Amino acid sequence: MCQFRNAGVPIRMTTTQQQQAELRQARIGDRGLRHDATPKVTGEFAYSSDLSAAGMLWGVTVRSPHAHARIVALDTTEAARMPGVHAVLTHADVPGQKTYGLEFADQPVLAADRVRYYGEPVALVAAEEPEQARRAAAAVRVEYELLEPVVDMERATEQPPLHPDRPTMAHGYREDDRPNVVRHMVIRHGNPDTEGELAVEGVYDVGIQDQAFLGPESGLAVPDGEGGVDIHVATQWLHVDRDQVAPCLGLPPEMVRIHLAGVGGAFGGREDLSMQIHGALLALATDRPVKIVYNREESFFGHVHRHPARIWCEHRATRAGELVCVRMRILLDGGAYASSSTAVASNAASFALGPYRVANALIESTAVYTNNPPCGAMRGFGAVQTCFAAEAQLDKLAAALGIDPVELRLLNALGPGDTLPTGQVIEGSLPTADVIRRAAALPVPEPEPLPRDAIRLPGGAGNTTRGEGVRRGVGFAVGFKNICYSEGFDDYTAARVLLRADGSAEIHCASAEVGQGVTDVILQVARTELGTDEVALAPPGTANVGSAGSASASRMTWMAAGAVRDACRAALEEQKRNGGGEVDVERVYRHPRTMPLDPETGQITGERAHVSFAVAAMRVVAEVDVELGLSRVVWIGTAQDVGKAVNPLAVEGQIEGGTAQGLGLALMEEIRTRDGLITNASFTDYLIPTALDMPPVVAELVEHPEPDAPYGVKGVGEPPTVVSTAAVVSALRAATGRELTRVPVRPDDIAL
């Protein structure tokens, strides 16, 4: 017997009934099994690192050993003469645009005169064998003049500019004359000088978290013999990859074709380019296929991470617990290049207050350049950092007022008709109070008696406790985030349907399957709309269909479902008009329009800046050995606003995965740096949660359909990550009585 929870109603299904339901391929609302689950578990799934081609060469990147330095001389002569070497390329060999970037084209394809972070690409090598390529890369001679690195984000605005030739601000953002400011954003709402009857203050720090995906960056670039190139790569955004790569190669977009290869996790880290341009440059220079595979250490250097943050907070309230004013100042370290820092700064500010009514607020958010590891998109970006701070403030306020923390949150819970600090009135679905009540009602397990199995004590497999100093704590937190892109971004997804005369269909959509299950969503939608199981999904690529946008911002289910739905319906209509036969239809789906925020006040300039929101609440039980500083999360119960669950099984998987990443940030995951150098660039030293660290997760799916979304869906991938860090640390506070203002929490933070 399997038992699942959906919208608070237990659903029981016998194994026989389950098997019968699976005889029909899954459609909207069915608990369908993931199509890629078995090959991934058995090791048969083909990842991008498994690619090969006849005549293939191996590419290797020469990287800077310094965080900040001037390139004085660069000599490739010896490397080019070595056996098996077919090409050694530098910045001078980039035929087109020399820089690229998601929002600002500020990142060099290959460093020309200066390196700005440890591991920045300086040269490329292609050779017959990997070892030949590595030896040649080691033979490239680079002379550096060391420069003082900017590593303190609080002092970055006082240091010489790292990008002196680039305007500090652009894209209509608020002007800021200080050096090294990527974006400075201010939200003024109501009267920020409003006094409450009681105030609590705090300063909170969030460390650098890595996406820690399974598969390091890899891909295969294949020249087409006509001056163009096909790039097979694990990515999150095929068309934007193409639109960044093509100008650097000096080619029109149609001559650069991006194909999705097997992705071993993404979590935002594959939004930025890694080997795409480099592989293509080598392939075109040698007229041979070129494969590049990063090792784990290189992966740490070669992709962006979660922004570290420092957040100053003041929350003011009445004695009855009503929030009347919040003041927050947020500082984010973006590293050497802009990447997604502008959007992260905006998200941090827009969702800084959490899902609560606050009539008055002043929020400042600043992202800065430094010579620290580059930072960009990671699951829940911006909202994770501020949720940790805001929820800690709510716990502190509840204690000061003598109010139950859950009741304090219910008293201030945001819902439809309420106004956000940006001035936007919430429309559609946001069942904050319902989600809080359902999470709070989940029964907490009773403490296990001592003595018990060592694996079930704080410290787990490596523990040294017998349980004498163990204390138990129960924590609670609530988080929310936007669904889909926002602030005027023209968010759209294209889908194409080839509907044959026999009723079978082939679906084209360039949505990136990064482990979130969008492939299954597309197939479920197509089966539902076309009324047939005979549906196949073509491999995603840029050549045969328009852009699907990025697999990020909890948008892919919403946007892909809308595009495939519209294309299927249009194909059926056209086939009916034609009296049957084969039809080929492409449609573009757009969500309701959003508008930018005012650069000076952070207020909406139109009807909305964000299209939709999702909220999650989480209750966590943790045990702490306060003598040794060891901890163990015992149980997690969560309720999440999911709109309509297209596939409840996949939704539960997303909640569990997102929760694991938030737990990791709370307890163990942190990139450590010294003068900009990552000192723990391996999974030996950078710790991630294992199966032994994960407790049971009970997930309650709260279904309040979103009116403007196809089938009422909402994205589900980010809210569990947003809330789980705050909830885990809340439980540690309850167990220790410590304030715990920094994540990850270290053993010496909780040892009494």
Overview features:
alpha+beta, Aldehyde Oxidoreductase, domain 3, Aldehyde Oxidoreductase, domain 4, seven-stranded mixed β-sheet, six-stranded mixed β-sheet, 24% helix, disordered N terminus
What is the fold's blueprint, element by element?
Layout: E1 2-6, E2 9-13, H1 15-23, H2 37-42, E3 57-63, E4 69-75, H3 77-81, E5 85-89, E6 99-100, E7 107-108, E8 114-115, E9 121-127, H4 130-139, E10 141-146, E11 181-189, E12 198-206, E13 218-223, E14 229-233, H5 238-249, E15 256-260, H6 276-286, E16 290-293, H7 296-302, E17 309-317, E18 323-333, H8 341-350, E19 361-368, H9 383-401, H10 405-411, H11 432-441, E20 470-483, E21 492-499, E22 505-508, H12 518-530, E23 535-537, H13 556-578, E24 583-590, E25 612-625, E26 630-641, H14 648-667, E27 673-674, E28 677-678, E29 697-702, H15 719-736, E30 742-743, H16 747-750
Parallel strand pairs: 3-16, 12-30, 14-15, 18-19, 22-23, 26-29
Antiparallel strand pairs: 1-2, 3-9, 4-8, 4-10, 5-9, 6-7, 11-19, 12-17, 13-14, 13-16, 17-18, 20-25, 21-22, 21-24, 25-26, 27-28
Helix pairs in contact: 5-6, 8-9, 9-15, 12-13, 14-15
In terms of structural class, how would the helical and strand content be classed?
alpha+beta
How many DSSP-defined strands? Answer: 30
DSSP helix fraction: 10-25%
Largest sheet: 7 strands, mixed
Shape: globular
* Strand fraction: 25-35%
Low-confidence stretches: 1-23
Rg (CA only):
26 Å
Strand order of the largest sheet: 5-9-3-16-13-14-15
Q: Terminal Cα separation, in Å?
A: 45 Å
